[in-house]
Each structure stands twice: as structure tokens, then as C-alpha cells.
Design goal:
Elements: H1 6-12, H2 18-31, H3 35-44, H4 48-52, H5 56-64, H6 66-69, H7 71-102
């Protein structure tokens, strides 16, 4: 899955006032996760990539099983960036809904 597109961001901001749009962009920038960091964590510190994305239980399980006897770690290397994009997409939707409800 690709990074959040400009079209997706504009769609999420639809119906917001200018101050709300600024608040949305500010919150998203502060809270979104970095794709590169997720990949580095998956590569060198298996398990911490999951914890970084809020999947604490899976992260601990991955650490305790030595990355599922390495297989899980290899799979996560290929899916790290997509999982980060999915996290950021859900975060953007959550922020958008929260801001719109405040109105």
C-alpha cells in the first residue's frame, strides 16, 4: 500500500474550516509514523517495529519467539512500509473524524 495521497488527505479534510484543516495537518504530522524507521526496526530490532506501530502484543510475541524462528522477521521486512502506511491512513481518518465531531 502506498503513502497517503494528496487526494486522500483532501478528501479527509472536506467540510473542514481553515483552522480545522491546520489542526488536522498539525496533528497528523506530529503523530504519524515514519516508514523508514519501521523498516530499520524490522531489520535490526525485530519486534520493536510492531511495538512502534502500536501492536504491543504482537511485538512482544515476535521478540519471545525470536521473530517466529526468523520467518516472521523476513515477512515483516517486506511488509513494514505497507503496515506503516496503513497505520498512518487509520490515524488520519481518526484525526479527521475527531476534528469534525468537535464542530
Amino acid at each position: 500500500m502506498a503513502k497517503i495521497s494528496m487526494m486522500e488527505l483532501l478528501s479527509l479534510q472536506q467540510g473542514m474550516t481553515e483552522p480545522q484543516k491546520a489542526m488536522f495537518q498539525n496533528q497528523l504530522q506530529q503523530r504519524q509514523k515514519n516508514r523508514g524507521l519501521t523498516f530499520i526496526l524490522a531489520l535490526f530490532l525485530g519486534g520493536f517495529d510492531r511495538i512502534y506501530l502500536g501492536q504491543i502484543g504482537l511485538g512482544v510475541l515476535k521478540l519471545l519467539t525470536f521473530e517466529g524462528m526468523v520467518i516472521w522477521g523476513i515477512i515483516d521486512l517486506f511488509t513494514a512500509m505497507g503496515r506503516t502506511d496503513e497505520y498512518n491512513r487509520k490515524l488520519a481518518l481518526e484525526i479527521s473524524q475527531s476534528i469534525k465531531l468537535q464542530n
